[in-house]
């Protein structure tokens, strides 16, 4: 293992390339990907076993959710040692083997960087808690308080106050997530120094970049800030964040790595500052297009909202910046359930929309085989702390158990965290033992092995789309324009360069619908390159149904 004193490798800025623009990413939630040692928990050696599968899919890099030492209050997002691998996942040697084998296959690996907070079991916090004058006290946010009178009434993302009172020192500490995830005090230069050392240590190991967690929350408003409309405003993209991001950027620039910041609350109008040539990161994950907990009771995602929101991001970043594209991740339900009807046709339609947008697409594990939401029947089937807290709150508000369950699980993170469905075998082929979270029973039909039985599988469609992107510059760099912006179910757009145009036409519904291109639209000479249904020529008036998706190309010069 390299030690801290190892020289950092200096890569000249001009040598940096933008490989990530042509790349397709794949997100692995390691607990649920593949269990190699029969304890019901996915692990690093499980990922190693499945590298050939990922290579076959055609992706270029993997983002792995946190694998560090952690008490697992928030499944690894509460880190107690940044430089140790959680024993559930394996060892540092396993990690180095994974990195080496991935690289041999031409696959890059980016790690999750969780630096807004640590675990309350991190040595820094254990020290910090000891006394008012402990040298680590200011590593976190501590404010005078009483049990009854907390510093303010701000609410945390996971429910309840952002403050937890400490009887011993008569102060409270601040946390935007769970109370076991105290927020680091970024104003303290010692904190930043230690974090930066840790970042370099990982980069020196040869990893290819970071997905930076919850990075828009590191700066907080003064504790007496008055909330008006947005309850998250006191710790969401607060002025002053930039100076820390610039320091981070300076480190990333020394290495030829990619960065994607999770930037909740950063509006599309500001995203140019955050991404691109002069941005803090190569790209950011925005959260606007996902309707999260706000839309309680809604079983379906709104296609008009999805279109409207993605269109804003595509347009805002057309000349300056770069999008990170995704339809689902470990915090959201499954897109085929949210925007579709759980069918393979819907999965393929959504893949077509996602993979040909401008930006770097991220496929979340299982999306490429059409994994769906889980039919939760009891709160005992839930692991996610925020869902359980939400459920309990609903009960205290007087809701009956069935109703509280229905509301709480609607947008639960656990829909996407169920074990990967590899094949029609015990526990879906994920493990030989009872997994940590239930496998969806539909694994008999929906699993990765289907690809070897059917040429028209969802997996093969993903493969074809990835190949298409790689072979056509227009699908990487071409301009984006949304067509039929007001249509409730058609998701259609063009990608255009000086020499060619691409037309993507997708019906995100079973129903039949008719679309009409304007008279000025030249519908001649389109060649159909890829479809999920029967071929259909581009006409002024077209009828589409059943989640059909078409991709056309035309040479314009
Ligand atoms: O999620 C962060 C996250 O979702 C917030 O930034 C978001 O702004 C908030 O929930 C409001 O919608 C990341 C991880 O993806 C998640 O799994 C972790 O639980 C969380 O950070 C804490 O580390
Ligand atoms: Ca295991």
UniProtKB/TrEMBL annotation:
Residues 27-417 form the Glycosyl hydrolase family 13 catalytic domain. It is an enzyme of class 3 (hydrolase). Pfam families: Alpha-amylase. Its EC number is 3.2.1.1. It catalyses: Endohydrolysis of (1->4)-alpha-D-glucosidic linkages in polysaccharides containing three or more (1->4)-alpha-linked D-glucose units. It comes from the Bacteria. The keyword Hydrolase applies. Keywords: Carbohydrate metabolism, Glycosidase, Hydrolase. InterPro entries: Alpha_amylase, GH, GH13_cat_dom, Glyco_hydro_b, O16G_dom_2. Belongs to the glycosyl hydrolase 13 family. This is Alpha-amylase. It comes from Candidatus Enterococcus ikei.
């Amino acid at each position: 293992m390299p030690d801290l004193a190892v020289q950092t490798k200096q890569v000249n800025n001009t040598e940096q390339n933008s490989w990530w623009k042509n790349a397709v990413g794949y997100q692995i939630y390691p607990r649920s990907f593949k269990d190699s040692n029969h304890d019901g928990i996915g692990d690093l050696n499980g990922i190693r076993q499945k590298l050939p599968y990922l290579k076959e899919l055609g992706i270029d890099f993997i983002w792995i959710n946190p694998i560090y030492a952690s008490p697992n209050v928030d499944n690894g997002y509460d880190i107690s040692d940044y430089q140790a691998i959680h024993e559930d996942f394996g060892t540092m040697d396993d990690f180095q083997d994974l990195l080496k084998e991935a690289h041999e296959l031409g696959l890059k690996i980016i790690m999750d960087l969780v630096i807004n907070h640590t675990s309350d079991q991190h040595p820094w916090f254990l020290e910090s808690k000891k006394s008012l004058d402990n040298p680590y006290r200011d590593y976190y946010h501590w404010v005078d308080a009483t049990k009854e009178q907390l510093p303010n009434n701000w609410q945390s993302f996971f429910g309840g106050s952002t403050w937890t009172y400490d009887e011993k020192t008569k102060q409270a500490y601040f946390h935007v997530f769970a109370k076991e995830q105290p927020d680091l005090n970024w104003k303290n230069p010692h904190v930043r120094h230690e974090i930066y050392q840790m970042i370099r240590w990982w980069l020196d190991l040869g990893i290819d970049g970071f997905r930076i967690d919850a990075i828009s929350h590191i700066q907080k408003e003064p504790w007496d800030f008055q909330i008006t409309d947005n309850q998250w405003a006191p710790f969401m993209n607060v002025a002053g964040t930039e100076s820390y991001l610039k320091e981070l950027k300076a480190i990333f620039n020394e290495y030829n790595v990619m960065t994607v910041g999770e930037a909740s609350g950063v509006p599309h109008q500001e995203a140019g500052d955050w991404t691109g040539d002069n941005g803090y990161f190569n790209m950011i994950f925005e959260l606007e297009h996902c309707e999260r907990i706000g839309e309680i009771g809604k079983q379906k995602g709104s296609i008009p909202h999805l279109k409207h929101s993605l269109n804003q991001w595509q347009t805002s970043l057309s000349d300056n910046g770069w999008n990170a594209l995704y339809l689902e991740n470990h915090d959201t339900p499954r897109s085929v359930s949210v925007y579709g009807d759980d069918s393979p046709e819907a999965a393929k339609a959504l893949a077509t929309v996602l993979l040909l947008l401008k930006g770097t697409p991220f496929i979340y594990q299982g999306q490429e085989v059409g994994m769906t939401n889980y039919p939760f029947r009891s709160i005992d089937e839930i692991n996610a702390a925020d869902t359980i807290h939400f459920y309990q709150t609903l009960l205290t508000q007087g809701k009956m158990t069935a109703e509280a369950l229905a509301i709480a699980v609607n947008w639960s993170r656990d829909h996407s965290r169920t074990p990967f469905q590899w094949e029609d075998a015990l526990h879906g082929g994920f493990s030989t033992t009872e997994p940590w979270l239930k496998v969806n029973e539909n694994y008999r039909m929906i699993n990765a092995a289907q690809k070897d039985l059917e040429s028209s599988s969802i997996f093969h469609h993903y493969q074809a789309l990835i190949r298409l992107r790689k072979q056509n510059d227009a699908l990487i760099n071409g301009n984006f324009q949304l067509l039929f912006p007001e249509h409730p179910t058609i998701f259609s757009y063009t990608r255009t360069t000086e020499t060619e145009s691409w037309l993507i036409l997708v019906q995100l519904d079973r129903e039949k619908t008719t679309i009409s291109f304007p008279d000025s639209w030249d519908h001649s000479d389109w060649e159909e390159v890829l479809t999920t249904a029967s071929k259909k020529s581009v006409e002024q008036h077209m009828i589409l149904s059943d989640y059909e998706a078409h991709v056309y190309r035309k040479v314009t010069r």
